[in-house]
User: Which sequence fits this backbone?
């Protein structure tokens, strides 16, 4: 690994940056292609991971309560591999920052152990952990210039003046701010401040870098640009990154693995593709991407298939994921792009009549809201390519989907 | 095409854009002026004009100007070293007679007495004597009445006081006077003011430092506590703010008395009573108590605006708790410290009631003497000069402070 030799070619950058916009819009193709590989490579479920012994960072049975009454983090088991980009994703108040703060040493776990590189760090002071950190408001020191900000961690480590200078130069080159050395943070734009914060967190070569919503204050365009930049820096430096966000697009774009948090507990820990394709419960299915939800009762269950009765209208064949017995309530989750119009007879196990309610043209695809099985808000994404039939609002069409694409999850 | 080549931009109805803009700007400026006018007038009437009057009073011979014109003229040729000639005596006699008729002779005597102690009685008796005389020669009569009339210093004083303006009050405020050979120090037993100024700045400085030492940790505590606890603490800090200065000073008077509760306690513990009231110690304690919120609040409000993430960032970058505090937190509080200390220092310079009540005679500050000259001696010139010098020294200090700290960096909150 050669630190700080990475420069981003801005044209190439812009190209790839455009490509990742509309992650959701293109999710269909991208994820279908990558799902098999990543399922093989990363698709290890939460339960198996928690027993892994070779983790770089490991949360073991960690709990945290601020007031002694409610648990903000409940029984957290989270192994993080060396060199990986792991994102904690979840709604506001789900305990992401708390988890990160425990790792950084600013909050003490109420129960459990946190290990870093095989060593328990529960009682190690924050400044002895050697963990880089990027804060949401950047936390640049306003009374110091950019250069002094970057020199701070190096001076603390008693490096020689020449070394300090060289490292600052490299770090600033990495974030393309070499001309800004003498400026104060107040004289920089938000995006530039963000880069300085990033450079400062990396300049002392930490093995682990934590970022708490570092892009939250930037506008959409800059945010997407910085996502790629951070991703590239991560790849070229090989540091382990733990990243917090509540923006699912950001999590999917950047991460090797994503831990979806809700209510102080990890709902699912998996690669982005896996999260999208194989959500383990209805919270994840709902939180990541768009999703049609149908609730019903399980009428038949045999290993890899089940039947679910939805209302009075009909029965759906689905893949059992979160159900254990016949008669249980379940939520069916089906991605809009997995629904086909006029499917061939043998192709889809589930076929129903639907009435088109509304059409929205979105360039590369059309969103159709249809009424099916008594649900009025059933959404279908129809690619705007040749061979796809024209739809008319009010018309009745035949739609279908495969049993494997329809996941029977826990009742929501 | 260069911009300069273009015809002036016109608005739709043909008026040049620039003229339009100027007109719009003008009405905006007038409105702004209208808004600040009441405050401007208020400041003018209550601050600038009195300040100007004060400056004027400190240099003008109010009691004597116009009443010693003959004497002034007669002394214009005098060498200042010998006894003046008959003409000067005659002129003074004429001036005194005229003044006596207008019942102003006492004023003249009082003014000369400022500079020449004891002159007042000599003036009174000689005025009585010359009022009865129709013609001279006066010189013998004067010298016969009192040897003092042969003293060139008295005549120099009369000459200096007979002009329109005088530097006497200013010089006297810094313990100087006009001697036979130019400026000289006043005799040691009369030299009080330099000492008073030194004492004023010393007490103000000590109180400022004490409030900073006591206030900084409290401000830090307030700024870092959760809101409900911080609010309670804040009430304790603000309590002195909400009681009258006089009440607090009186409370200190009661506490520090030799029969007061503090001394009762000391008696119980170490079997001894301490002298605390009418001392420098008492003055400084009471003033520190009163000034604490003034130093503390600007520091607090600056601290309140320092995000906790800064210290955390410093810690995560490898700095120990103290290093992080000293290198990252403390420098950001400097504007608050600067503002708080300046406020307290300047307010302390003007303290009057507290040293007067709990301090001893050697703890009185400039304001005390200003009040003394105004109320007891009715010597406005001296009071004005003392005040003006305090103002000037304060402004010089402020200027130096500005150079060092930078007023633009200062934050009151
Ligand atoms: N210092 C604290 N004292 C008491 N409660 C706290 C404290 N910090 C956080 N909490 C509570 O813990 C819960 C989790 O907070 P946390 O900051 O970890 O959420 P988060 O997932 O980072 O949310 P967000 O996306 O809004 O940043 C919240 O209910 C919050 O109110
Ligand atoms: Mg947070």
Assistant:
């Amino acid at each position: 690994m050669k630190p700080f030799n990475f420069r981003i070619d801005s044209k190439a950058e812009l190209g790839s940056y455009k490509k990742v916009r509309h992650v959701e819009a293109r999710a269909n193709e991208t994820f279908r292609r990558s799902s098999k590989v990543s399922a093989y490579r990363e698709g290890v479920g939460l339960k198996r991971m928690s027993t892994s012994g070779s983790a770089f960072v490991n949360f073991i049975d960690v709990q945290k309560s601020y007031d002694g009454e409610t648990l903000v983090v409940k029984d957290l088991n989270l192994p993080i591999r060396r060199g990986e980009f792991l994102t904690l994703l979840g709604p506001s108040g789900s305990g992401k920052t708390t988890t990160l703060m425990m790792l950084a040493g600013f909050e003490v776990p109420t129960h459990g152990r946190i290990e870093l590189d095989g060593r328990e760090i529960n009682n190690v002071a924050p400044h002895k952990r050697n963990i880089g950190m990027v804060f949401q408001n950047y936390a640049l020191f306003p009374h110091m210039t950019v250069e002094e900000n970057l020199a701070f961690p190096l001076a603390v480590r008693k490096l020689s003046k020449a070394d300090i200078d060289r490292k600052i130069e490299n770090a600033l080159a990495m974030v393309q701010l070499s001309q800004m050395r003498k400026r104060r943070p107040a004289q920089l734009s938000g995006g530039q401040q963000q880069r300085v914060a990033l450079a400062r967190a990396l300049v002392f070569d930490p093995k682990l870098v934590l970022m708490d919503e570092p892009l939250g204050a930037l506008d959409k365009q800059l945010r997407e640009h910085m996502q790629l930049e951070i991703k590239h820096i991560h790849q070229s430096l090989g540091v382990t990154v733990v990243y917090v966000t509540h923006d699912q697009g950001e999590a999917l774009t950047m991460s090797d693995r994503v831990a979806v948090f809700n209510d102080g507990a990890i709902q699912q820990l998996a690669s982005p593709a896996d999260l999208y394709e194989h959500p383990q419960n209805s919270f994840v299915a709902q939180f990541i991407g768009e999703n049609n939800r149908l609730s019903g009762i399980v009428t038949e269950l045999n290993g890899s298939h089940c039947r679910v009765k939805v209302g009075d209208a009909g029965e759906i064949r689905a893949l059992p994921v979160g159900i254990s017995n016949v008669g249980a309530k379940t939520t069916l989750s089906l991605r809009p792009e997995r629904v086909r119009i006029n499917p061939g007879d043998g192709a889809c196990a589930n076929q129903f009549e639907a009435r088109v309610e509304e059409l929205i043209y979105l360039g590369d695809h059309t969103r159709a809201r249809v009424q099916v099985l008594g649900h009025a808000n059933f959404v279908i994404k129809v690619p705007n390519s040749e061979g796809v039939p024209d739809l008319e609002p009010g018309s009745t069409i035949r739609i279908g989907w495969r049993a494997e694409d329809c996941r029977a999850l826990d009742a929501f | 095409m260069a911009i300069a080549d273009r015809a002036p931009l016109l608005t739709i109805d043909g008026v040049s854009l620039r003229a339009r803009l100027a007109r719009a700007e003008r009405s905006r400026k007038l409105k702004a002026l209208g808004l600040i006018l009441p405050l401007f007038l208020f400041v003018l009437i209550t601050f600038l004009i009195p300040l100007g009057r004060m400056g004027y009073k400190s240099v003008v011979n109010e009691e004597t100007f116009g009443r010693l014109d003959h004497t002034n003229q007669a002394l214009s040729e005098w060498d200042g070293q010998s006894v003046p000639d008959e003409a000067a005596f005659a002129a003074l006699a004429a001036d005194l007679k005229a003044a006596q008729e207008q019942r102003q002779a006492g004023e003249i005597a009082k003014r000369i007495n400022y500079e020449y102690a004891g002159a007042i009685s000599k003036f009174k008796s000689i005025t009585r004597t010359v009022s009865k005389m129709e013609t001279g020669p006066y010189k013998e009569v004067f010298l016969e009445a009192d040897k003092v009339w042969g003293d060139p210093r008295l005549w120099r004083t009369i000459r200096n006081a007979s002009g329109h303006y005088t530097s006497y009050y200013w010089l006297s405020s810094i313990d100087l006077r006009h001697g036979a050979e130019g400026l000289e120090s006043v005799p040691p037993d009369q030299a009080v003011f330099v000492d008073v100024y030194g004492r004023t700045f010393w007490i103000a400085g000590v109180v400022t430092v004490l409030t900073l030492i006591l206030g900084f940790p409290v401000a830090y505590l307030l700024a870092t506590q959760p809101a409900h606890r911080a609010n309670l603490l804040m009430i304790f800090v603000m309590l002195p703010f909400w009681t009258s200065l006089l009440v607090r000073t009186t409370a200190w008077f009661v506490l520090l008395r030799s029969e007061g509760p503090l001394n009762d306690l000391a008696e119980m513990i170490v079997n001894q009573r301490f002298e605390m009231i009418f001392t420098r110690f008492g003055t400084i304690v009471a003033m520190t108590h009163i000034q604490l919120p003034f130093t503390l609040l600007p520091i607090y409000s600056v601290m309140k605006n320092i995000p906790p993430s800064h210290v955390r960032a410093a810690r995560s970058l490898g700095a120990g708790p103290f290093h992080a505090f000293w290198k990252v937190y403390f420098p950001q509080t400097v504007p608050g410290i600067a503002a708080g200390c300046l406020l307290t220092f300047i307010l302390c310079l003007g303290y009057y009631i507290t040293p007067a009540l709990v301090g001893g005679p050697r703890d009185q500050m400039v304001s005390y003497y200003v009040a003394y000259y105004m109320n007891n001696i009715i010597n406005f010139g001296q009071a004005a000069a003392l005040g003006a010098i305090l103002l000037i020294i304060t402004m010089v200090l402020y200027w130096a402070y500005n150079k060092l700290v930078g007023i633009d960096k200062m934050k009151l909150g």
Chain A has two domains: 10-130+207-277, 291-410. DSSP finds eleven helices and 20 strands in chain A. The first strand of chain A starts at residue 57 and ends at 64.
